[in-house]
Design a protein that fits this description.
The chain is of the alpha+beta class. The chain has 11 helices and 12 strands. It has a single domain, classed as Jelly Rolls, CATH 2.60.120.620. It has helices at about 5-10, 15-25, 40-55, 70-75, 85, 90-95, 95-105, 235-240, 245, 250-260, 280-290; strands at about 5, 30-35, 75-80, 115-125, 150-155, 170, 190, 200, 205-210, 220-230, 260-265, 270. α2 packs across α7. The chain is globular, with a radius of gyration of 19 Å.
Length: about 290
């Protein structure tokens, strides 16, 4: 059984609740947080997803372009990326005090600024087989193994996660395995969740989507991945939301998309992500000035 924590416990314990989640990530590597999101937020985001899909009938199940990721992404899986442009409500999920607060607390010991690596809808359709177990930190396979994870993920259930409809399977404590080894099949457990629950896991934990054998039931999730700011992100945030649109977003979301420099000067490091030798927020200020003029 995966560790479970109620949203009420986190809220009632202020910062101590986030620290409890960090402890779980440092021990088991994962936890289910119950009731993270209220029903009205879920209804609004699901409605926005459905409207976008209805207006884009060309977007279909399976990879949209032939890529080496075909088998990984799933031929009976619907994925929507670039969500900030397509579903505005996703911003409040990305900036959620529990999800973002946890990512900041977990990652800041090894970085000066965190970034949003990816935000996508993942919907498993009936007939989708199990995804092969993987670590998300394999994105950066040239990075030598470290004691700290460089990413933390949140899989928010936009529909129930059950044993038969493809609940994500995780192998607790598998981040401790040495490179080149994988957990045995019986070490994986399904993350059973109600709508509004969230599975949090460190990026170096083995996991994978389960098989959807539930007849006509689709399993929908919002997958959010936060990472250290000194690594390149999975999604290119500045192309996904260019300056002309990013200037209207909350400043913290601008930072997560890549409009913040990674300034490690206070810890003896350097500065990354500058624009013409300056703070990249200056690009957004130029667009603000043009709009005002």
């Amino acid at each position: 059984m995966l560790p479970r924590v109620s949203r009420g416990l986190i809220d009632g314990d202020a910062h101590g609740g986030i620290d409890r989640l960090v402890d779980l990530l440092c021990d088991d590597g994962c936890a289910v947080v119950e009731g993270v999101l209220p029903s009205e937020s879920l209804v609004r985001l699901n409605a926005e997803i459905d409207r976008w899909l209805a207006s884009h009938p060309e977007h279909r199940v399976g990879p949209q372009y032939p890529t080496i990721l075909d088998s990984f992404q799933g031929l009976q899986t619907l994925r929507i990326q670039g969500l900030i442009q397509k579903t505005p409500s996703v911003a409040e999920f990305i900036l959620h005090p529990v999800l973002l607060g946890l990512a900041e607390r977990f990652l800041h010991p090894i970085c000066a600024e965190i970034a949003l690596s990816a935000a996508e809808v993942i919907e498993l359709w009936p007939g989708q087989p199990a995804q092969f177990p993987h670590r998300d930190t394999d994105l950066w396979n040239f990075l030598p193994p470290t004691r700290h994870a460089v990413a933390v993920n949140a899989m928010v259930a936009l529909s129930p996660f059950t044993r038969t409809n493809g609940a994500t399977r995780v192998a607790p404590r598998s981040y401790l395995l040495p490179p080149g080894t994988a957990p045995a099949p019986d070490q994986f457990e399904p993350a059973l969740m109600a709508e509004g629950d969230a599975l949090i896991l460190r990026g170096d934990l083995f996991h994978g989507g389960g098989p959807n054998e539930a007849g006509s039931v689709r399993r929908r999730a919002l997958s959010l991945s936060y990472q250290v700011g000194w690594l390149r992100t999975f999604e290119n945030g500045i192309l996904t939301v260019p300056p002309s649109q990013a200037r209207r977003l909350p400043p913290r979301l601008q930072d997560l998309l890549g409009y913040a420099a990674h300034d490690a000067g206070s810890s003896g490091g350097g500065v990354l992500g500058l624009w013409d030798g300056r703070d990249p927020h200056g690009v957004l200020a130029l667009f603000d000035s043009a709009a005002d003029g």
